[in-house]
């Protein structure tokens, strides 16, 4: 999985949105590196995900089922945790929200995306930070779309831009406490959410999914679609002592699609 060696033995890591996709791959990576991992998601599948990580790593992985848009629920879910060394704010929702969509349901989708990606990230961080000591690390999963924009993804892109602002504010606010905060900005990764977006884009434009995917990967300097496992080394690096002087940064991991 990882192409570099990291050791998180004795450390506790909390990963949100880890029932599948990038979050699950990152949680597996930390467990393989020796960490005690807790994963959190709003769906019951989080328990099966924890069981898979436990079986694979040989270390018990705890599961918390919680809707992060409910601050009180987040506080209650984290109450049983002791010290948190690393928090990975990965939970997020990606859907199209066309401005010109005549269906009022688009407004409900907009609110739900914003509530999860922006408010939920704030709630989890707010309740996790009191459990973090000097040397704590926070990593947000942002997106290349936190730097650029495409049509019809207003809520998702606005929320990911907000994540970058939040990263920078937290870095300044928590730096004096010795807590580092950074963001990872993935490009297109083969996840359920990304493939659903691809299907929606195909329906919206009338173009085939294969044609759209070829255009997307063609915009990269390095060819090919990223897999969730390709993301893991950067998260481990940012959480490691090798990155002890890095904070307030947004790291692009997109095979050269966006250079900023």
Automatic annotation (TrEMBL):
One of its GO terms (molecular function) is oxidoreductase activity, acting on the CH-OH group of donors, NAD or NADP as acceptor. InterPro entries: NAD(P)-bd_dom_sf, SDR_fam. It holds the Pfam family adh_short_C2. Keywords: Oxidoreductase, Plasmid. SUPFAM superfamilies: NAD(P)-binding Rossmann-fold domains. It comes from the Bacteria. Belongs to the short-chain dehydrogenases/reductases (SDR) family. This is SDR family oxidoreductase. It comes from Gemmobacter fulvus.
